[in-house]
Amino acid sequence: MLFDLDKDQKIDYHELKVAMKALGFDLPKSEILSILQTHGSPSEPANPNTPHHPRLLLPFAQFQTVMTQRILARDPRDEILRAFELFDEGGKGKINLNDLRRVARELGEGLEEEELAAMIDEFDLDGDGAINREEFLGICLQ
After folding, report:
1. Contact 54, 10 (CB under 8 A)
2. pTM
């Protein structure tokens, strides 16, 4: 598993924090600890003859269950609006031709200027030469 840095088939606090952030969930420490307390189990001592301070570990199967529930509970509109923000440089509330050109270049898409302009024209319902949030939602939720 990618996030299991020590390859023990269990995820500790730091691994869980990194994994959740990579999957789009930037949670505060208290929420991550709550997940571990609810779904995790204490670590086993490496040497039974030494003092042991158990850490809570989340078994891989539990990690999958928790993440599946969280991903399925996401509101698709929120995800789409997050994607909109990636296009909308400067937070104008609209995606214009320059934004589309920049994203196409960043993605290595060799689109012609006419193709980019046609995309704007096709989905620009209010005729302002740009795609606003509602128009973008309409494209994605068709």
Report:
1. no
2. 0.59
